[in-house]
Structures are given as C-alpha cells and as structure tokens.
Amino acid sequence: MMIQTNQEIQESQKLILNLKKEKDVTILAHYYQTLEIQEIADYVGDSLGLSKIARDHTNTKNIIFAGVLFMAETASILNPGKRVLMPDKQAGCPLASFLDGNTVNTYKEKYPGVPAVVYINSTAETKAETDVVCTSSNAIKVIQGIQNEFKSNKVLFGPDENLADYVKQKTGINIINLPDEGFCYVHNVIKDLDVIKVKKEHPNALITVHPECKREVRELADHIGSTKGMYDYVKINTSKGNEFIIGTELGFVQRVQKDFPNNKIYPVNENFICRNMKLSTLEKIFNLLNNLNNDKHKVTVPDNIANKARISLEKMLKYS
Ligand code: SF4
Q: Of 21, 162, 206, 292, which has fewest CB within 10 angstroms of its CB?
C-alpha cells in the first residue's frame, strides 16, 4: 500500500481504524509522530504519560506503540501482561544510545556512594543499572529526592547534557555528566539565532522550549518545559489570544497548531524533525495490524532487566 495523496492518507486511516476496532488493539502515539498517525491513535502523549495510559486505561491485549524503542520498552516494563508492538523496531533513540548499563556501572565504581539517575530516554538495560529514572518534567524533584536519600552532595546524571545543565542551573546541585557527552540531535541543533530570528518576525509571541535545548536557547525563552509542560503552557495562555514560538520537534508543533486553531503557533524551525520517530508510518501500522501475531514486532524486555528497571521507574514515581 503506497500512501501519498491526501485522499490516500484518509482512506488508509479509515482502513486502520476499522482494523483496529475489529482486532481489538489500542494505538498509542507520541507527540513527535506525524499528524496522520496521531489522528488514528487512541491516545497521544509523551513517553511516560503513554506508559501510564497503557497501564491504567487499556483493556486490549495488544498495544501498538508508535514512538521509539525505549518508550515501547517502558510501556512493556510497566505492563507485564500486555503485548507491546512497534510498527518499526528499528526506531531507536540516538540520545538513549549515548549510555549503556556497563558505563553506568563504571561511573558508579568511580564515584562510590553517588546516586545514578537516568533520563527516561534511555534503554531498559541502562535503567536497570541505575538508582532512579526521571523525566524532563520531574527531573528536579527526583534528583533532589535521591540526593537526600543518599546524603550525597553529588549526583550522576545522563545521558542528556542539556537537561543536566538545566537542573544544575535551577538547583545548584553538583551534577556529574553520565557519560561526558550526550544530547538529542533534534534539540541540540537549535541555535539562539534561530529563536532570535523568529522572535523578530513575531515580537509579541511567547517562547516555550524543551529543556533538551542548549542553555543559550533556554535563556531566550519565556517558559521551559517538557512536552506536556509546553502543551499545558500554550493551553493556559490561549485565552489571552497569545502567539507562541515553540522550540521542539515539528510533530508536536503541528499538534499544538491543530488543537489551538485560534492561536498563532510558530515553530522555531520547520526542519527540527526526529527522523527516528518518523520511521513509523501509516503503511507499517496497517501491515502490523494484519500481522499481529508475528513476534518480530513485539517488544520484549527480559525479566531480569525488566524487574530491576521497574524498581528505578517506581522510585521515580515516589519522588515526583
Ligand atoms: S527527539 Fe531526540 S530524544 Fe526524542 S526520540 Fe528523537 S532523538 Fe530521541
């Protein structure tokens, strides 16, 4: 099935919606998916939000997760009784690839007694070797919580160096980057000059950016927030008729434009696209729905890793 024109998109969306109902499947889509995939999803959200939805609001045995691998792994870890499937298991996250479990253990040996915190954008194997996981919205609370628990004046944190810098800037906590370098190629490429240019064109617009952006970009923003945090920021301010400049992945910007049609929403740059997220397509979802029992799409986390990673995820919930 080649899908190219608007009419073909709509026809394939209809086919997918019928198949989804007939085969009793829930589709979860991250905000960075294309709008055409977001439109056929039962739920759209950020990675942790979607995992919680999978746990609390889905009755189907099969869940299709349109996102990247660490997200589907997290959904699988938090939902051991369900089959979590990906349209394309090659969709990994380059940020997560900066850090593996062995490196975490090497740093823990080098810094005994210092807690290791990892961003949710990491593999299940990495999460299993750390003391606690955090998201971009709860990073400050989680890091403060684990620091108190360990009574340590330092915290190991990775793999995103910009999020680490943001927490350091906000709290003054002595953070050791784990590993030395790690970033999201989509957010790290955003420059202060990109933001300044759009702001000149739209001087009344409020600027909101993701904490995975560099400090020079964050310093130009009126608001810094996680994906959900940015969404809520726009929602709270829509009544003032505001215009917004958004510094994050294009799929999210398009979603906000669709949900708030009476406001003017500008991307910092239309080229900020996560190619890995875009590996999921309507065509692949259609094919998956026709091959639900094929285990090549199933995301499996071995029990020994899932059990340890679940402890780090549950500790995050305790501190956030
Ligand atoms: S946007 Fe960045 S963090 Fe998110 S999946 Fe893509 S590379 Fe990973």
A: 21
